[in-house]
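Aim 2, interim progress. The first record below pairs a target sequence with its structure tokens.
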Amino acid sequence: MADNDDKIILLDVWASMFAIRVRIALAEKGITNYESKEEDLFNHNKSPLLLEMNPVHKKIPVLIHNGKPICESLIIVEYIDEVWKGHSRFMSTDPYYNSQSRFWADFVDKKIYPPSNRIWRAKESTERETAKKEFIENLKKMEQQLGDKCYFGGDTFGLVDIALIPFYSWFHTYETCGNFSIADECPNIIEWAKRCAQREAVHKSLPDMHKVYEQALVYKMHRLGIH
């Protein structure tokens, strides 16, 4: 638990996989006494607090711990792990292990997120098909890295799991918009995701995938000017 004197605020968006990472990390540490402030990014209505706490990128999530902002989801997850050490750790004492964890967490951000985002946002079928092919190819690389392990860190739920599992809430959106099955393409990733979802911290932090899909459709129509 956080100290009673700690004041923790999370600038949040419920469907954001990046914000979900932070919610999972906090829950894994048993930290529940924090205030979540939902940002209205759908209408580009960023709060003064967000602009003050993250003046460089002006994006969520932002964790405000005793008045001090920490930005960027993977950095926030590592910060949480460093500050609240009395719980199971996301990182190791082994520098090489940590280097590999950071590599694959970064791979999620650079190679999984961009094509997955284009699958449901794409206006043209050719763009969508290209994005789908890239997404599947890179998700297969994640599956190879997972191998037959329980989690990416072996028996330990860690940084890479936290980086990737929020995308599970978006799988239905990708599959519906892209007309494909992730279970057919990457069955071990689905089994891994189901194991992760059995963890209380993950289960409570993941939004319903059908609600995510509905929100994605609304957002896409809004971008296209369809009301």
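The second target in this work package is listed in the same format:
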Amino acid sequence: MATVLFCPVTFNLAETTRMIQVARAMDPVHRIVFMGYEDDYVGLISEAGFEYVSCTPVFTSRERDQLIAFDQGKTLKSPLTRELVGARVDVERQLIREHSAAAVVTGSNLTSYISARAEQVPLFYPVPFALTEPQVRQARHLFLVGGRGRVSRFADLLATAAFRWIYTKAPLAPGAFAQVAADNGVPPLRTVASLITADRNLITEMPWELHGFTLPDGFERVGPIFAHIDAPLPEIVEQLAAAAEPLVYLGLGSSANRELALRAARALGTLPVNVVAPIAHYLEPGDDLPPNVHVTDLLPAHRLGGLVDAAVLHGGQGTVQTACANGIPFVGMGLQPEQTWHVRMCEKRGHAIAIPPKRAGSPEFLDAVRRVLSDPGIRSVARDVQRAYADEDGAAASARIIEASL
């Protein structure tokens, strides 16, 4: 028996659920311990039956927003001071020692990249390919500039080249990481890419999404990993699925915002469809929505296959992969380059349509929803993708790789 310490960012829904899926796939002979700082999705960890250790210091709401923007490549400013980084590394090192952890599995909890190495414990990172170092080094386009015309594509080509240098070569990681790494006897983390590159990086993609790319040492494909929330579907979902009108799923994960949720929901409400929308966490009392839009809390989206006719998604890999695995064609509105990448890969495959989030609610948006509901070609590809997903289990593949190191 060995102990494996999981360190997700617990205010990130997709990351937390991805870690839960990997932990579930581990041999039960091993002891699984989760740790985290914020409490947004800790309930999902507890409901899955895993031990959880609550840690400090905790980010403020403002620091969270700034960290998400940094993680998404939208800013080089970071709330990660030497004091905070140092305190978190101390906490994590102590946990590794107390539990005699034989491996650490992380997400974008950046201090794990120091603490695990300081304790000389192997560090694993199940991660989407977008915005990893090999993807940034090799991709011609990172979709940093919106638009599809020649001018937009040329501008994106230039922006991608600039971002590539900033991300992989420029010493622009927050200075706290170099300082705290040195304090802990770890080689300094100076580039942005080095902050989120583990010892073993487990790429959660389908084979065709890596076509044309070469994975360097330390990177290997494991396949899709997405949430399986252990809860029954709300009764309203099956009622709506039995109605004559098509049923559309509106999934915006944890990285959207109230404005986008309202625009998308109100626009969908103008169509002759029913909508199930787990967007309650974005709404405020008094927000008025059309009667055919049914708001819920988080629901087990992996059980929507055969019930939902189409989806509108924010582009996070978890929501995209859930739709793919269920054969649901979708309209995707990537909120940042990683999410845009996921949507564009599906659009290229032929079972999704990419729309800029600023166009949510526009005639273009409504036309895209109508197309994914009615276009037989799009719907046929969605079924083909569903069949391909049936042969993939990224969580089990990740668990086997982690267990081989114990």
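The two ends are 9 Å apart (CA to CA). This observation will shape the mutagenesis plan for the next reporting period.
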